[in-house]
């Protein structure tokens, strides 16, 4: 056993015999660490080699045991051989325990102030946090109270609004019924056939050409007087010569009338399709008189025509009605063309010839659907340049919008809205190309057939010549013979399309006693 001498590092001395130092040969009792330094041997006065190494633990005043020397001692003395290692072990443990206690004390002296400080800090922090939590809890309670108050107020408002909505619903329901009654009364008074006249303004081209105007005097809202501008005298039915002629309509729209003005006049009639009425609106007049403009119009909202406005209006009314009833509505539309007495579906890529009974209606989910189909149909419709119109329609266009309604109880009557943009009536000319002559003949023939049908209906004839033309056959249900029900026959109207050079003559026969469910409106578009 050797004593450690250094306060900086344990000095471990052993007989190394100049051998490389082995870590298991010497260990520091205190820290149980081993050095790995090579020993530096010295010879003492007896020429005995002594090796000194320093343990790295740098704890002074502790013993180091040279296991080699312990081992050599044990072999020398057999009687103490068993006790000695145990004693050494015991001493080692004692010393370890002591040193650990001391260390603990040192550590405690270092740690204690920190612990106290930390505890103090912890207490402060806890207190601070508790204060914050208290404040937050108070805030939360305040917010909760405010929210509850607001919810209460909103609930009261909601109840009030619900009550008001109920009252409005009842009022709206009453108004709808009143409208229905008024509309029916109006139908009765007007004979369910109305003829309006719209006089279009001069186009920019006509202004440039400084075309002569015929004089139109607006006698009142329903009457116009046409004065022949060329000075020649017109012949009256009685054979009397006259310069001026008066025409009466249900309403006359002057050239400054907007598309909205025209639609306003028709909106009530159009709404009746939602209750299962059949409505038929014709645009009738000379080529270039503004029929397509009135029916379809242009793409801008201000100038769009009756058809797009109708669909928008129907969607709006349906939305309003669905707020107060569970009735569901479905809208379908077909775009048909009658060209040279043949029927075509205009929604095909190229117009497809179809039979009259063929159902080619497409569902209309929103306004965009209709606009898309209308564009497609417009593109497919046959037009040609004529003397009076650069894009003159050479065919009749029939846009049929079907509104079907159903409730939980069952299906309601289906209403058809037929918009008919008739081909422009033209005077037959031997000088026109043959194909155009054929078109003109067919157009005029079908217009005559339409006239005959309406005349027969107005005369209450037993036989109505619906089959005389594709147009009249297609419009059979709208014109009156509604085979799906026992509705009475159609209203009477007679059109006498004797074209003067200025304006088409129209004779309307009204029957105020008619109680059918079909409404027919005729448009005459004066071409000036
Ligand atoms: N109310 C109006 N306001 C402004 N321009 C109009 C009006 N009515 C018609 N027009 C213009 O007059 C021209 C002829 O109109 P449109 O093509 O609608 O006549 P149409 O009766 O359909 O002719 P067609 O029978 O030859 O097809 C078009 O350029 C159109 O824009």
Largest sheet: 11 strands, mixed
Shape: elongated
CATH class of the domain at 260-481 and 497-504: Alpha Beta
| Percent of residues in helices | 25-40%
Strand fraction equals 15-25%
Q: Can you give the mean pLDDT?
A: 72
Q: In angstroms, what separates the terminal alpha carbons?
A: 139 Å
Q: What are the distinct ligands in this entry?
A: adenosine-5'-triphosphate
Quantity of strands, as a count: 24
Gyration radius over CA: 55 Å
Do you know the CATH architecture of the domain at 260-481 and 497-504? 3-Layer(aba) Sandwich
Family: Belongs to the TRAFAC class myosin-kinesin ATPase superfamily. Kinesin family.
GO molecular function, one term: microtubule binding
Main location: cytoplasm
Domain Kinesin motor: 192-518
Describe this entry's structure for a reader:
The protein has 528 residues and is of the alpha+beta class. Among the domains are: 112-189; 260-481 and 497-504, Kinesin (3-Layer(aba) Sandwich). The chain is built from ten helices and 24 strands. Helix 4 crosses helix 6 (306-324). It binds adenosine-5'-triphosphate (ATP). Adenosine-5'-triphosphate is lined by residues 200-201, 203, 285, 287-293, 389, 391-393, 424.
